[in-house]
Amino acid sequence: MIYFDNAATTKPSDAVIKAVISGLEQFGNPSSLHRLGLEAEQQREQARKIIADALGALPEEIFFTSCATESSNTAIFGAAASVGKRKKKIVTTSVEHPSVAACCDKLEQEGFEIVRVQPREDGKIYAEDIISAADDNTCLVSCMLVNNETGSIIPVERAFAAIRKKHPQTLLHCDCVQGFLKLPIKTKKLGADIISLSAHKIHGPKGIGAVWIRKGVHIPSLLLGGGQERGFRSGTESVPLIMGFGAACGELASTVGERFEKVSRLRDRLVRLCEQTEGIFVNIGSECSPYIVSLSVEGLKSEVLLHFLEQREIYVSSGSACSKGKKSTVIKEFGVPDKLRDSVLRISFCAENTEAEIDELMTALREAQSSLARIR
Ligand code: PLP
Hints:
The chain has 376 residues and is an alpha/beta fold. The chain has 2 domains: 2-9 and 256-368, Aspartate Aminotransferase, domain 1 (Alpha-Beta Complex), CATH 3.90.1150.10; 14-254, Type I PLP-dependent aspartate aminotransferase-like (Major domain) (Aspartate Aminotransferase, domain 2). Helices cover 40% and strands 15% of the residues. It has a 7-stranded mixed sheet with strand order 2-8-7-6-5-3-4, sandwiched between helices. The chain has a 3-stranded antiparallel sheet with strand order 9-10-14. Strands 1-11 form a two-stranded parallel sheet. α3 (68-81) runs parallel beside α4 (98-109), α5 packs parallel to α6 and α9 packs parallel to α13 (355-371). The longest helix has 21 residues, at 35-55. Bound molecules: pyridoxal-5'-phosphate. Pyridoxal-5'-phosphate binds next to α3.
């Protein structure tokens, strides 16, 4: 099997599986006062420290959630309920993941002004455009670091630094799901107030995420109840999944640069081979994370291609190009021409992928070009 769908989810590593199983075996509730509870609490705190270290954060700034979707909902609705009482504008981009976009849509219906910064004609989002969209009435700027469909890197660091200077009361949120432990992200450099993370994109388990909230920043809780996570996120913590998250971070934190180099070589090879092949186009060329490549095979439908590759045990994504028959608005926002939008494939890597696998993918795509029916 060749797995090129790592932006959708990644294979849990052996260390992660071991950590989750050991968490299931030590089944105590971390809120219990007896020994089993204390052991679970210790495991949870050990994982929190590893995750915090990987992000350049303090352990007390990390709050566990069920997924990055919950983290971003917490950030956006929390900002709206706090600073948003006085300031009714939110700046975001037009290419956010639905976990951010849908929250902004809802707040728009409730009366907030939402400014969605779009990529320019060259397909890039410019820091200047984000900076100039924010003003004194802005309660929140929410921008992703790496786009999940194209891999485009958004200049969050530059935008946030300038907005912080001009509008110090504005909260700054970054969805770092496709960047964490893939690019060298540290809280200090990124300059956000709130960051969303997910474990299953970094070889950790599904169903566990985290929200990093800068010390001193206060937003209200989304979930009320037993007061877990120091009162911020109620609900019994999933210690097994937290331990799996910690194990994933522990394994990857020291190899960000090394993996980036390796994956860059894979991306370069794929891009070069696409450029040498008539009818196959790489959708966004520069300033991309090497982990995600969006390409189009002109004249062939994404879903047909996806299943053609699946029959050869090559797993890719249709790049959300056709979600329930609709074209992706994100791909359109990035300026992918109409005739290529139905033909998008998202190839997403992890460090375990190889150059030989890229060659197999290209052979299969060329076969598809010569054997599959064209879109009319
Ligand atoms: N943000 C981005 C950029 C993503 O790619 C994803 C998942 O695809 C999410 C958020 C949601 O993550 P989770 O599955 O942990 O809710």
